[in-house]
Amino acid sequence: MNTIKFDLHPWMMLVIRSVLFLVFQATIGLFFLNNHLSNLWDGSAAWWPFTIILTNIICLVLLIHFYHQEGRRYWDVFRVDRQHLKKDLLFMLGFLVLLGPVGFLPNILSAQWLFGDPQVALDLLVRPLPVWAAILSVLMFPLLQGIVEIPTYMLYVLPRLEKQGIKPWLAITLTGFFLSAQHVFAPFIPDLSFITYRLIMFLPFAFLIAVVMRWRPRLMPYIAIVHVLMNVSIAVMFLFVM
């Protein structure tokens, strides 16, 4: 009889990003607001790119360590499979046609539904930062997101949940949900409409990525590049609201 060994690491990595987002935002809030707890969350919301940068650094270190424990190199997940290069590039071209609407429309439609104007949601999300902070966000935030976020959920957590006996559909559901739900905490603003908006705006995108990455994990190098570019488009917004 085969026994399934329980491993806490993938379960920890499933939730750790959301926890760290909250911890770092609270820490930043206490530092900049001089312990004015009444304005802790809203006052520190502008600094969410840095909560993600700090979280990504910690998650990257953990992933490298966990892969090393398994006798593997984390960076190998970004190795291009030259044997399937042409097939994978053709797939990515078609996938990008689908990815655009799936990633963009839920954002706009949910903002319109909850706020009456997508600009309201954008103004809550992108707030003025000091020049140095805005520039640092552009330099660090997109790259770290590309090499940490999706690999955490889809290449580390998802397959290891399945190895513990979790059904594929449930593993996809869990990783897709937590990939989307983490955005509630980046930034965390105690407003029901904003929480709902951040929860659902990436949900279709997250489930699509989960399905594709489970089916063809060798696409990670291309997905990472696309993800970096997507986050560059977000980060540069901070340069125009300083």
Descriptive tags:
single chain; 242 residues; mainly alpha; 10 helices; 73% helix; 0% strand
Describe the structure.
- The protein is mainly α and 242 residues long.
- It is 73% helix and 0% strand.
- It has helices at residues 8-32, 40-44, 48-69, 85-115, 118-125, 131-163, 168-181, 192-200, 203-215, 220-235.
- Helix 1 (8-32) packs antiparallel against helix 6 (131-163), helix 3 packs parallel to helix 6 and helix 4 runs antiparallel to helix 8 (192-200).
Approximately how much helix is present in the residues?
over 70%
Could you tell me the strand content as a percent range?
under 5%
Based on CA inertia axes, which overall geometry fits?
A: globular
Averaged pLDDT: 93
How large is the radius of gyration? Answer: 18 Å
Extract low-pLDDT stretches: none
Largest sheet: none
Order of helices and strands: HHHHHHHHHH
Q: Please give the alpha-carbon distance between the first and last residues.
A: 62 Å
Tally of contiguous helical segments:
10
Going by helix content, strand content and strand pairing, the class is: mainly alpha
Report the count of strand segments. Answer: 0
Concise synopsis of the structure shown:
This protein is 73% helix and 0% strand.
Outline the fold blueprint.
Layout: H1 8-32, H2 40-44, H3 48-69, H4 85-115, H5 118-125, H6 131-163, H7 168-181, H8 192-200, H9 203-215, H10 220-235
Helix pairs in contact: 1-3, 1-6, 3-6, 4-5, 4-8, 4-9, 6-7, 6-9, 6-10, 7-9
